């Protein structure tokens, strides 16, 4: 029973609450703000588990870049009252039944496996400095890093192709 | 005993917040005076000695002003936005070393932490633009995202050279690694790129496109008034001070004095303050000297020139490090 124990439960509770709020909000920008808070509390959990590097990357990449782009798109589309009305049409109570059953099953399985494992992850893990993460990434998991790089390159080429087709169309008109 | 367990670096928090906010207040006046000097006019010189109390008068005016929340906007997000901007900026100060041993959190991810907080501050700008429900605000918010997506990539990459030479993300280690030579010499390319990224990050002219007052009234904070406006302005000056201090720590040896002078000439914190003031003045000079580029010009400058340049910088730094080891 120490401070990081309590901090873990607080941030876990915040993460779960805000995740539920992010799913159920009808206003897209509010949902995204809740999602950011979820990501921040997950970053806190990473920090408590002794992975400050992963925590920082969680904030920089997920909260700082990806969700910002989501919000950018929401702003570009300028979603207003009409989209809120459409969302509330989609989010009728009947729509919640099947996802709720499926996630309930998943939750039971997950809880069972967590209870079965004897040495589940400790809250006071060893703190892993960024240097060690880098060493492991570029020795043991080098293949994975390279493959991820190739995948990202493919995505980049695809995005460039789509953008160029748009530019060519505009030039012809 | 309670006092034995307390971490004394936490004592720094309140003086740091007070100092940073006070510094922002003085900086508003100093910038206006200096701009007046550069543009051959007087600037504010009526309130107090050389007008030094002008900012205080402005602050009192802003506090007592009617704090209007637009009824057509999103009330919650509108109030939240300035808090996010200022809060994220103040959080970034937590890892900033102020002098030898004077640091609140000597983190081993300090550089990443500052990048993370500066990327969170964009939410405030974005939400301010979104919640105001005003076309100028919306355009300002959109511009700030596009600008942020552009500069954040090469801002992070420009610092990698420094990180490689130091072998650590900790800002204290960065300063200690510069005892022989300041990083502004081996990392001059990184310095220039970081300077440009810092201009865009703190929305300073010439890259103040989100609030370009000639085109967008005041951009994302058009609808703000009273204390909320004051908070946004304070956050902007806080980020200017932060970027200047970061440039000093990362490239100009932090609290270390120049090597050709005897080290006992001035104490570390005086050197540090002098360098930060010098960099801030340079930023103000840039504001007076350079016109604002068009919005797409900044984007193409970022993606087509600065990004490849920073990648090249990393490549060459890495090659030299490999060769000399």
Description:
- The complex is a heterodimer of chains A (173) and B (325).
- Chain A is an all-alpha fold.
- In chain A, 80% of the residues lie in helices and 0% in strands.
- Chain A contains 7 helices and no strands.
- Chain B has one domain.
- Chain B has 11 helices and no strands.
- Chain B has helices spanning 2-5, 13-38, 54-64, 75-92, 110-131, 135-166, 171-176, 188-201, 226-251, 268-289, 295-324.
- In chain B, helix 6 (135-166) runs parallel beside helix 11.
- The longest helix of chain B has 32 residues, at 135-166.
- Chain B is globular, with a radius of gyration of 20 Å.
- The mean pLDDT of chain B is 81.
- The chains are: A mainly alpha (173), B mainly alpha (325).
- The interface between A and B is medium-sized, with 25 and 31 residues.
In short, what is this structure?
The complex is a heterodimer of chains A (about 170) and B (about 325). With about 170 residues, chain A is mainly alpha-helical.
Helical content of chain B, roughly? 55-70%
Mean pLDDT of chain B: 81
Summed up, the domain count of chain B is: 1
The total of helices of chain A stands at 7
Biggest sheet details of chain B = none
Q: In the residues of chain A, how many domains can be counted?
A: 2
Strand content of chain B: under 5%
Shape of chain B: globular
Terminal Cα separation of chain B, in Å?
49 Å
Under the CATH scheme, which class of the largest domain in chain A? Mainly Alpha
Q: How large is the count of helical segments of chain B?
A: 11
